[in-house]
Automatic annotation (TrEMBL):
Residues spanning the membrane: none
Signal sequence coordinates: none
Composition skew (Low complexity), residue ranges: 73-85
Topology of this chain in the membrane: Single-pass type II membrane protein
A GO biological process held by the record: oligosaccharide metabolic process
Full protein name: ST8 alpha-N-acetyl-neuraminide alpha-2,8-sialyltransferase 6
InterPro entries: Glyco_trans_29 (IPR001675), Glycosyltr_29_Sialyltrsf (IPR050943), GT29-like_sf (IPR038578)
Organism of derivation: Latimeria chalumnae
Length: 415
């Protein structure tokens, strides 16, 4: 009996000793963990107070990771150089790895037959988070490609140098049709390409998209050395705040002459008054794209001559337009005809050291998802089946991504 009790007592002591040993071990490990955590916190604070950004950086990082403070939301925003807003943390992230990833992805992408509007808007919003810089080597490489295929410096405009007297001019679209350049026609052409300031330092190519409304881009546009516009757009009054008023060259579709000015049979004076708003700009017409364009384009020349207008009438060279269409067909734009805005943007890349595009937006919603008109002055949609502006816009995005041109997506800086 006594031996039995002794065994029970010994077993009890062993259990008690084991419990005490376990508690001591746990306490030592816990104390060590607290000690090393304090050392780590001290090192972290020392880093933030010196090389990692100072006390201000320490406070910002502490507040960003603190479980007692909410994380920034989409309303916590800063304004970027293009006037759009986005989260500061997203911008810092995008300016490093995200922008490189986006650049590589867009450079490697083979265009599909069609993308949704949402795809374009998402891509634009991603691009806006990345600061844009011109890349002279990429610009020169692409300019050289255009020069080899199309040579805007020599062939953009019909001139006496590139179209000798007696030439049978082939039309751009109507294959097999020609037009004899007589002495009377030959005298309409400038002796050479009329761009005396070539190469221009900075050019603005202004489309007519509804995205220009409330953009406040007018001042920036007017600061360009050469300003291209399309199809006699309005520039007077308050709208100039958004689109500017300076015009160096403006295209003119003969359909405008037909519908707005009665083919210049009785509305010659209203036409002259309208184009007078563009100062001494060049009026660029596609006289040799279709036969129906030729007589109307020549009427513009003679009307301005009769009224002593300051504007100079010039004509697209059909050889240039054909070559440009073939060049872009090889890159996936297989359309009946390129848009005039796309044509002059390509010419600008050859004629200018830096090209900025405004108002090129072929969608019914802006990049914030709000409904906008097709043009900044009306909501008239283009005829279907002639142009493919979303495809053209896709390639503009790729050129923007490479630093060859700069696309303005929204509001401009207001200084």
């Amino acid at each position: 009996m006594w031996m039995c009790r002794m065994r029970k007592c010994i077993l009890l002591w062993i259990l008690l000793a084991s419990g005490v040993f376990f508690l001591l071990t746990f306490w030592i490990k816990y104390d060590a963990a607290l000690h090393y955590r304090e050392i780590a916190n001290k090192d972290w604070r020392d880093c933030l107070a010196t090389a990692c950004g100072g006390r201000r950086g320490m406070r910002e990082l502490e507040s960003a990771v603190s479980p007692h403070r909410p994380l920034p939301t989409s309303n916590s925003s800063n304004t970027n150089q293009n006037g759009s807003t986005f989260n500061k943390l997203n911008l810092l992230k995008a300016d490093s790895s995200s922008c490189k990833e986006l650049h590589n992805r867009m450079s490697a992408t083979t265009p599909r037959k069609r993308y949704s509007d949402d795809y374009y808007i998402q891509t634009v919003n991603e691009l806006q988070k990345c600061s844009w810089v011109i890349r002279p080597e990429e610009h020169e490489k692409f300019r050289s490609e255009l020069s080899v295929c199309c040579n805007a410096v020599r062939n953009f405009i019909v001139s006496q140098n590139n179209t000798p007297l007696g030439t049978n001019m082939s039309y751009e679209v109507e294959n097999g049709r020609t037009f004899l350049i007589t002495q009377r026609i030959f005298k309409m052409f400038p002796q050479s390409q009329p761009f005396a300031g070539y190469p221009y330092n900075q050019c603005a190519v202004v489309g007519n998209g509804g995205i220009l409304k409330n953009s406040a881009c007018g001042t920036e546009i007017d600061q360009a050395d050469f300003v291209f516009r399309c199809n006699l757009p309005p520039t007077l009054g308050n709208i100039s705040i958004d689109v500017g008023s300076k015009t160096s060259l403006v295209t003119l579709n003969p359909s405008i002459i037909t519908h707005r000015f009665g083919k210049l049979n009785e509305k010659r004076k209203p036409f002259v008054e309208t184009v007078s708003h563009y100062g001494e700009a060049f009026l660029l017409l596609p006289a040799f794209s279709f036969r129906s364009n030729t007589a109307l384009s020549f009427k513009v020349y003679h009307t301005l001559e009769a009224f002593r207008g300051k504007q100079k009438t010039i004509f697209f060279h059909p050889k240039y337009l054909k070559s440009l269409a073939l060049f872009w067909r090889s890159k996936g734009i297989k359309v009946y005809r390129l848009s005039s805005g796309f044509m002059i943007a390509n010419a600008a890349i050859e004629l200018c050291k830096e090209v900025r595009l405004y108002g090129f937006w072929p969608f019914s919603k802006n990049n914030e998802g709000k409904n906008i008109s097709h043009h900044y002055y009306d909501n008239q949609l283009p005829k279907p089946g002639i142009h493919s502006m979303p495809k053209e816009f896709y390639h503009f995005l790729k050129l923007h991504n490479k630093g060859i041109i700069k696309l303005q997506f929204g509001r401009c800086d207001i200084t």
